[in-house]
Amino acid sequence: MRYSPLKLEEMTQRQREVAEAIGKRRVGGLDGPFVPLIYAPEVADRAQQLSEYLRFGLRTPERLRLLAVLQTARYYSSDAEFLAATKDAREAGLADEKIKALSEGRPPADMTADEAMIYDFCAEIHTTGRVKNATFNRVESRFNREVCLELVIVCGYTAFSSMVHNVTQTALPAGETKPLNPPTLR
Length: 186
Known about the structure:
Blueprint: H1 13-25, H2 34-37, H3 41-56, H4 62-75, H5 79-91, H6 96-103, H7 113-128, H8 133-142, H9 145-168
Helix pairs in contact: 1-3, 4-5, 4-7, 4-9, 7-8, 8-9
């Protein structure tokens, strides 16, 4: 890990304030990407607030939100991000076979119509940074424009978090193994 967890006595006053605020707002406290992000306390504070909103405040159905998270974590080969979302994805009703397919970087078999349209929407974001009109219109007509925007933000935030995990070499929880095969760096 490139950024060692800071002890309270090693933190600046602002880092302590943010760490305590995050600890009060999050069940897991200061863990995951927030361990290295506390080195940039203002970013950590704002990122955690956005993370909380994206987890608990969206109109996007939870199973579909987590499909987008897993798909994005796979795209960025982030073991830590993928593992962090796996349990919640199972609890939200995403089948183990679908999670395994996502971990292997392939479209899951037997997706529901909703899952397939979300998968396509996110795949287009990852490969082109855009979404075709036809794909956007499918999601908009099934859900609404707000859900379309939420999906963009979920993918973007997950990309950010994945990159933080990857670059800072976030340690996986004890007993966990790497679920993803990372790409070769050029």
